[in-house]
Write a structure and sequence with these properties.
homodimer, 2 domains, Isopropylmalate Dehydrogenase, alpha/beta
Chain lengths: ~325, ~325
């Protein structure tokens, strides 16, 4: 049994949706401890009829703040208190739907880096067709080639632990498939990745997403963030365009919609960030999951399940083992 | 009347599809000159029943070659000869579906940079909802802040000339909307763009594509390439997933498809790169359009029309005017 600390005050819809999500996850067997303003959390818990432990944390970190400073200064902020629970062994993992920057800083500074890790990295699973782990998606906007090798190892562990891929293939995100493409970063990383203890699949491009060219794409945090948001934007835009294409005032079309739209809704849901729970901060001494800022009850519960599964399957230890071989 | 030189040997489907595309464009009023191996082009022209001028160019630049060197050494390569026709005033513009690197090098080196341009940049129009010009998508993998300002000015001219937007809004592609986000490149560029003679809309993200947050997104060529290919990959993946979601063996669903699929096919076509002709190399002394490597007859014809329209509307002169104000 593993215990997950939830930053119950983080996110646009906190604390209402975070408490509900925690209650749902707890009902499904996840051991959750809520961290936040006790005076606000207790009544919500009473309403829900559930009894979950609460650790009081009266402060919050705002969206505009310098996060590294805020993490150090605001010792009673909910994200800081949750991270210290992990650092002190009171919890095995941490979930927050608050500011990504604050969660990354809390993970790196307060939970602390796992042995051998230079840079903790944010990894997301892209659910388009063949599921693909992409990292970094924003924790480190500029990186060196040796960081990309570590990202490859950490991403491989994530693909093993969560996607069940035995020997994941790692691709280097680039502007073309041929060796020799890219910036100096990609050219140097190519050689290092080819020599690293992982299955290197060479260069990959955004158009390979979901096609199984690789299970893991590694890149710097700027490019990964651009890719992630470009994919999200395209999924939203295409969903709108598909509905618009089917909204014509033609009786035959209108008659067809009741059988067509439910199928498209299922697809849309499978591509929804809420369904997937969130991004993983890899390379810290505890499982850290960053949920979407707009996370609903469902998304919070999924993020808690994800963190719990990561902790139970030894994600942190396996990342450390992997990096020890580099 | 403007005259466009077509690299008839460039592209996976050349010269068959390039000749057919040229014949179609010429039938629609575009003045085209074919550049390539006369012995191969003449019979194809005879087959098509059309009579277009041919300039003989027996060499080609292969995919693996160092393009800057090849452009200088292979003076009789089709792309080099086509570029020299523009440089010498024999043509107003150039279209190639061959190697993007070779076309960019031919544009920058042989056609030559327009007055005031530091770095010619590749611009694409993203057709998702609100059409958006994105540059650079791969000509300059690493750039300085002053280059992004030039890209903003050049992209604005493209949006005016092709999209009919009177006063285009220019966004800086970044990892968040707030000022202060990003790498040093974005932080420094933000201030320069805010002071530049263009309508600066602040930071934008990939998820803003198609939503009208800006008409032009500026970024370095690596990030722009990642965004472009991520969007292309997502459009393909979602098209496959939508068809799969509707392929179930349910009689009611099967009965609905004849009225639904044609609408989705129209949408798919509107998002197809072939429909849009290609990317523009901005900042050279002639209109240069890079068509997709897999360009079909339709795509080649569209690229020729695009180049012809750019030349007729004075794209090159207007870019130079815009840059003179920076």
């Amino acid at each position: 049994m593993t215990r997950i600390a939830l930053d119950a005050m983080g996110g646009d819809r906190a604390p209402q949706e975070t408490v509900k999500g925690a209650v749902d996850a707890a009902a499904g067997g996840v051991e959750v401890v809520l961290v936040g303003d006790e005076a606000r959390l207790r009544p919500l818990l009473r309403e829900s009829g559930a009894d979950l432990p609460v650790v009081h944390a009266p402060e919050q970190i705002g969206m505009g703040e310098d996060v590294s400073r805020a993490i150090r200064d605001k010792k009673r902020a909910s994200i800081s208190v949750a991270a210290r629970l992990v650092a002190e062994g009171e919890a095995d993992g941490l979930v927050s739907a608050g500011s990504t920057g604050a969660t990354v800083a809390a993970g790196a500074i307060l939970v602390g880096r796992a042995p051998g890790v230079s840079r903790p990295a944010l990894a997301a699973v892209f659910p388009l067709g063949h599921p693909t782990v992409v990292l970094d998606i924003g924790a480190n906007l500029e990186v060196r080639p040796e960081h990309l090798v570590q990202f490859g190892v950490m991403g491989s562990v994530l693909a093993q632990v969560y996607l069940g891929v035995e020997d994941p293939a790692v691709g280097l995100l680039n502007v073309g498939e041929e060796e020799g493409k890219g910036r100096p970063l990609e050219k140097e990383s190519f050689a290092l990745l080819a020599a690293a203890p992982l299955r290197f699949a060479g260069n990959v491009e955004g158009r390979d997403l979901g096609r199984g060219a690789a299970d893991v794409f590694v890149t710097d945090g700027f490019s990964g963030n651009v890719l992630l948001k470009g994919v999200e934007g395209t999924v939203s835009a295409m969903s709108r365009l598909v509905l618009a294409a089917l909204s014509e005032d033609d009786p035959a079309l209108q008659a067809a919609l009741p059988v067509v739209l439910p199928r498209l809704a299922v697809l849309r849901e499978s591509l929804d960030p809420d369904t997937h729970g969130g991004a993983h901060l890899l390379g810290t001494r505890g499982t850290v999951v960053v949920a979407h800022g707009s996370a609903s009850r469902v998304a919070v519960a999924n993020a808690l399940r994800l963190a719990s599964a990561g902790a139970e399957r030894g994600l942190v230890a396996r990342v450390a083992e992997g990096l020890a071989r580099v």
